[in-house]
Amino acid sequence: MIIVENICKSYAQSLVIDNVSLSIPAAGLTSIIGPNGAGKSTLLSIIARLLRSDKGKVSVAGLDIHHTATDVLAQRLSILRQDNHLHRA
Hints:
The chain is an alpha+beta fold. It contains two helices and four strands; from the N terminus they run E-E-H-E-E-H. A four-stranded antiparallel sheet has the order 2-1-3-4, with helices on one face.
């Protein structure tokens, strides 16, 4: 289960996520839908520990994502980004 508690995120003067809380069950399929600019990708980036929130807490399988070692968290959480950048030498 993923639990998001009171997450807030701003970019400069623009508030993107304002006090969002939700629980995502361990089984099944969950969709996050909304218009462009609603904060969906920002929320997912915070959950995936790719971006730090300004306020709030996220836990994955009972593990606080900011206080859990990367190798331990990787046993519970994997990430596949929509955009992948390849650098050629």
